[in-house]
Automatic annotation (TrEMBL):
SUPFAM superfamilies: ISP domain. Gene3D superfamilies: Rieske [2Fe-2S] iron-sulphur domain. Transmembrane segments: none annotated. It comes from Pseudacidovorax intermedius. Belongs to the bacterial ring-hydroxylating dioxygenase ferredoxin component family. InterPro entries: Rieske_2Fe-2S, Rieske_2Fe-2S_sf. Its cofactor is [2Fe-2S] cluster. This is Naphthalene 1,2-dioxygenase. It comes from the Bacteria. Residues 4-100 form the Rieske domain. GO terms for molecular function: 2 iron, 2 sulfur cluster binding; dioxygenase activity; metal ion binding. Keywords: 2Fe-2S, Dioxygenase, Iron, Iron-sulfur, Metal-binding, Oxidoreductase.
Length: 103
């Protein structure tokens, strides 16, 4: 039941970094870790901060506001003060484009 949306060229992806993008009115954070690509909601579950302004270390994104952390693979909190998981979205690279399915 995936509704894939073409969001960008694959070569526009950052390298081992995070970028924010509004897709269909939803603020989405897109992460790369090596060859892997992940997507979650961009708004931290703890407060009014965009995770694309944070720091990505491997599969872990650190929120810029209170330094809470999430695993970008499943959205689960990995460091206080965050306790609520991020919503994750399906994302794939195909034919030189990046495709997102907003959950
Ligand atoms: Fe993200 Fe507080 S707003 S940790």
């Amino acid at each position: 039941n995936n509704n894939w949306i073409d969001i960008m060229a694959a070569d526009a992806l950052p390298s081992d970094d995070v970028v924010g993008l509004v897709v269909g009115g939803r603020d989405i954070a897109i992460y790369t870790a090596g060859d892997a690509v992940y997507a979650t909601d961009n708004l931290c579950t703890h407060g009014n901060a965009r995770l694309c302004d944070g720091f990505l270390d491997g599969h872990e994104i650190e929120c810029p506001l209170h330094q809470g952390k999430f695993d970008v693979r499943d959205g689960k909190p990995t460091c206080a003060p965050v306790t609520e998981a991020l919503r994750t979205h399906a994302i794939k690279v195909q034919d030189g484009r990046v495709w997102l399915s907003v959950a």
